[in-house]
Amino acid sequence: MGMTEEGPVDPRVQRTRRDVVDAATELFTSEGWAAVTHAEVARRAGYSKATVYAHWPTRLDLVRASVGQICGTSEHPRPTGDLRADLITALLDFADDLSRGHLARVLGGVFERAGSDPAVDEMRGQLYAEGAGPLEAILGTHLPEEAVEPCVALLTGGVLVRVAMQASPATPEFIEDLVDRVLASARG
Questions:
Q1: Which of 52, 85, 94, 127 is 20 to 30 A from residue 176's alpha carbon, by CA?
Q2: Which run of H or E residues covers position 4?
């Protein structure tokens, strides 16, 4: 049985929360922010709108729960210690997530609303930390601390522009070239 500050959580409440957040997350990743409505989440989760509103009074609450689930369940490739190979593997994973569309929809919804609410900015930071954290860890074991953040920005930015803005595939060749250029610059 789960716990809260108030004590144990009823298993039915846990199940309801899980089902609703699963439904909201599936909607958010497959159709985007606008699709995450109380009515549609309730329908997909099999609960009444009143139940959904009781736990998530606003659409932002549903989206925030979705981002929490996305970040809490994301998996990243395990580093091997080979800087170049680890960066290529991590960036191919990032490019795949963008190419399949689900990550692009999530980021697009958050970017579109950035600056509109501190909770949205918090979600943006949470998504960035989840995505950039593994790259920072990989780079941090091989490069000086001051080189890590610029390299993360160049690497993730290069893949994001290629896939989301240019609508071109981030092929292994593209990513290998990007990694080589960034590492050459960092090692200067």
A1: 127
A2: strand 3-4
**First CA to last CA across the chain, in angstroms?**
54
Would the pLDDT of 132 be above 70?
yes
For 113-122, b/e burial (b = at least 16 CB within 10 A) is beeeeeebee
> CA-to-CA distance for 131 and 71, rounded, in angstroms?
8
Task: Say how many C-beta atoms besides its own lie within 10 A of residue 97's C-beta.
Answer: 19
Class of domain 3-70: mainly alpha
Tens-place pLDDT, residues 2-41:
555 556 778 888 899 999 999 999 999 999 999 999 999 9
Global confidence as pTM: 0.82
Amino acid letter, residue 133: G
| pLDDT for 99 | 85
Q: DSSP character for 78?
A: P
Fold of 77-187: Tetracycline Repressor; domain 2 (1.10.357)
Q: Which residue shows structure tokens 């929809």? A: 105
